[in-house]
């Protein structure tokens, strides 16, 4: 169980005690800062800061258990979700990762490989909230099923091997 709190302190302690390998083999319940540290990069954000809009920034590397996801806890409280241009900019900035707004009491159950379910709501390329399953993978996240365009095809491999 990973609770909320100060994300920097939590992340430093988890890195210090090398907790990631232990978490990888167990079910994990996390919220707020705890959800943020499970991702591959921790993003700080607050559109409603007292000094005005703050641009989202990458704080640092998370534990990397949940890849290609930017966890955004208390999203309605901290983000201007109705500002579609701002939300589209956020989604584009952190693409190919999914920007996952989390609300108090919400639940997102990941699969065994720590991937988002098709029903999870993320911020789409137009700044709208949309289910992962409704988005084309090339819109805001990597397509794991697409062939690697940098890899040579079979005829190129044969030519290289035959030289």
TrEMBL record:
It comes from Barrientosiimonas endolithica. InterPro entries: Class_I_gatase-like (IPR029062). Residues 138-156 have a biased composition (Acidic residues). Residues 138-163 are annotated as: Disordered. This is Uncharacterized protein.
